[in-house]
Design a protein that fits this description.
The chain is built from 15 helices and 23 strands. Strands 1, 2, 3, 4, 5, 6 and 7 form a 7-stranded mixed β-sheet that branches. Strands 18, 19, 20, 21, 22 and 23 form a 6-stranded antiparallel β-sheet that branches. Helix 9 (about 260-270) packs parallel to helix 10 (about 285-295) and helix 9 (about 260-270) packs across helix 12. The protein is of the alpha/beta class. The chain is globular, with a radius of gyration of 22 Å.
C-alpha cells in the first residue's frame, strides 16, 4: 500500500506497482469510487500490462462491496472505455498507465456519459475516502454483481458510423501499435476497409520490448517512418499504449504536427456543422484558429489538459477539439478523446481523392514550430520573470497568462508554462519561418537556463 496523495494526479491515478499501487489499494479505490459517485453500475476495461487484469478485478471487488454492479469489458483501449461509458450510460474506469514504463499502472475515471473525473470533480474525494477505508478496513455489505461483456465490435461499428469511408480508394497503411492496445483494436476497426495493412508491434506486451509507446517522442516514430518508406505506404499511424492518442506520418516518412491534423479534422467537421465551435489549446499552431475562421467556424482557445478541453467543449457545444499532444475530442463521441476516430478522418480525407497526404496537408500547415522543449529549473517563477523582463520592453509584444505565460510579437509567439508535477518549464515557440522561430526559441532558452 502506497501513499495515495502521491498516485492521485490532477486527472488520473498513476503509480509504480506494487510499491505505490497494489490490489488492496485498487479495492479501496473501487469502494470509494462507488460511494463518491453513487453509481449503480460501473464499466471497467484494462490494457495489456501484466498488473492490469488483477488490479481491475480488485477494483471490481471494491465496487461490488458497496452494492454496485460491475460490467467488465476486459481488454480495451481508453477510448473504448469512453464508448462503453457513453453507450451504456455508466460510470467507467480504465486501468492503464498509457505510455509509462511497464512497472507503472493507473486508472482513468469518468462518470456516466464519459464525463471526466479530475481533481476538482470528484477525484480528490475518492482519494480521501479510499485512504480512510485503507486505514479502517474496506468492509461493506456486498451485493453487487460482476458480468462480462465484449464491446470491441460495437465500439468499432460506432466509430465507422461517424466517418463516411464508403468512397475511400485502396490505401497502403502502416500502423505501429507499440505493443499497446491498438494491436487489439485496429484489426477490428479497420476490418473490411480497402486498406493494405502493415502491422508493427501488434503483439500485446506491457513490457514494451520494441520502443516506448509514446509517439510524441521522435525516436519512437523511427520504425514507423522507415516502414512507410520501405513498403511505399500512403500513410503511417502510431498509437500510444492505451491507444487514445494517434500520430500521423506522411508518405515521405515525415512526422505530421497534431496541429495540422487538428486543422484538417476541424475543416471536415465544419463541412458537416457549418458555423460550429472548435476548441484548440493555447500551444497548438496559430494556423488552427485561422483555418477554423476561414471555414466559417468559431475557434475557442483553452488551457492545456483534457479536463479543460472537455469542460470547454461541453460549455460551448463545440463539435471538435484538438491538442498538440495528439489528443482529439469529438462531440459525437461524448466530448471524449479518441485517436482512432481522428485516424479514420485522415484516412477518409486521403482516400477520397488521388493526391498524396503531404500535398493534402500542405494547406493546413502555415508556421514553423519548435515542439515542446523542457528545461529543468529550480525556481520556475524566477526563470519566467527573467524572460518577461527581456520581452516586455519590445514594441508590439503582448502577454497572456491563461496557462503559464504566452508572449506574442509580429509573426511569432511562444508559451512558457510550468509542469504541475516536476521542476520543469515547458517551452513551445512558433514563427513564420525556421530562422525566426529558432531565434526566439534560443533567446528564451538562454534566459530560462541562465
Amino acid at each position: 500500500m502506497g501513499d495515495l496523495a502521491g498516485i492521485f494526479k490532477a486527472y488520473d491515478v498513476r503509480g509504480v506497482v506494487p510499491d505505490e499501487l497494489d490490489e488492496e489499494t485498487a479495492e479501496a479505490v473501487g469502494a470509494a469510487f462507488a460511494e463518491v459517485t453513487g453509481a449503480a453500475a460501473v464499466v471497467v476495461a484494462h490494457d495489456m500490462r501484466a498488473s492490469s487484469g488483477p488490479l481491475a478485478s480488485a477494483f471490481a471487488r471494491g465496487v461490488t462491496s458497496r452494492g454496485a454492479d460491475v460490467v467488465n469489458t476486459g481488454l480495451g483501449s481508453t477510448d473504448m472505455l469512453y464508448y462503453a461509458s457513453g453507450s451504456l450510460g455508466m460510470a467507467g474506469v480504465m486501468f492503464t498507465a498509457s505510455h509509462n514504463p511497464a512497472r507503472y499502472n493507473g486508472m482513468k475515471m469518468c462518470r456516466a456519459g464519459a464525463v471526466p473525473i479530475g481533481g476538482e470533480s470528484g477525484l480528490t474525494e475518492i482519494r480521501d475516502r479510499a485512504a480512510e477505508l485503507l486505514a479502517s478496513g474496506i468492509g461493506g455489505e456486498g451485493g453487487g454483481t460482476v458480468s462480462e461483456r465484449d464491446l470491441l465490435r460495437d465500439y468499432a461499428d460506432h466509430l465507422r458510423t461517424l466517418v463516411d469511408l464508403s468512397g475511400v480508394r485502396p490505401l497502403r497503411v502502416v500502423v505501429d501499435a507499440g505493443n499497446g492496445m491498438a494491436g487489439h483494436t485496429v484489426p477490428v476497426v479497420f476490418d473490411g476497409l480497402p486498406l493494405d495493412l502493415t502491422a508493427l508491434y501488434f503483439e500485446l506486451d506491457g513490457t514494451f520490448p520494441n520502443h516506448e509507446a509514446n509517439p510524441i517522442e521522435p525516436e519512437n516514430l523511427r520504425d514507423l517512418q522507415k516502414a512507410v518508406l520501405d513498403v511505399g505506404a500512403d500513410i503511417g499511424l502510431a498509437f500510444d499504449g492505451d491507444a487514445d492518442r494517434c500520430w500521423v506520418v506522411d508518405e515521405r516518412g515525415e512526422s505530421v504536427s497534431p496541429s495540422t491534423i487538428t486543422a484538417l479534422v476541424a475543416a471536415r467537421e465544419l463541412a458537416k456543422h457549418p458555423g460550429a465551435t472548435i476548441i484548440h489549446n493555447l500551444i497548438t499552431s496559430q494556423g488552427v484558429p485561422e483555418i477554423v475562421t476561414e471555414h466559417g467556424g468559431l475557434p475557442v482557445r483553452t488551457r492545456v489538459g483534457h479536463s479543460f478541453i472537455k469542460a470547454e467543449m461541453a460549455r460551448t457545444g463545440a463539435v471538435f477539439g484538438g491538442e498538440h499532444s495528439a489528443h482529439y475530442y469529438f462531440k459525437d463521441f461524448w466530448f471524449a478523446d479518441t485517436g482512432m476516430l481522428a485516424a479514420l478522418h485522415v484516412l477518409a480525407a486521403l482516400g477520397e481523392q488521388d493526391r498524396p497526404l503531404s500535398e493534402i496537408l500542405a494547406s493546413y500547415t502555415r508556421y514553423t514550430a519548435s515542439g515542446e522543449i523542457n528545461s529543468t529549473v529550480a525556481d520556475q517563477r524566477a526563470a519566467t520573470a527573467r524572460v518577461r523582463e527581456i520581452f516586455e520592453s519590445r514594441d508590439g509584444v503582448t502577454f497572456d497568462e491563461l496557462d503559464g505565460m504566452t508572449v506574442s510579437g509580429p509573426g511569432w509567439w511562444f508559451n512558457l508554462r510550468p509542469s504541475n508535477t516536476e521542476p520543469l518549464l515547458r517551452l513551445n515557440a512558433e514563427a513564420a519561418d525556421e530562422i525566426q522561430m529558432a531565434a526566439i526559441r534560443d533567446e528564451v532558452l538562454a534566459a530560462v537556463r541562465s
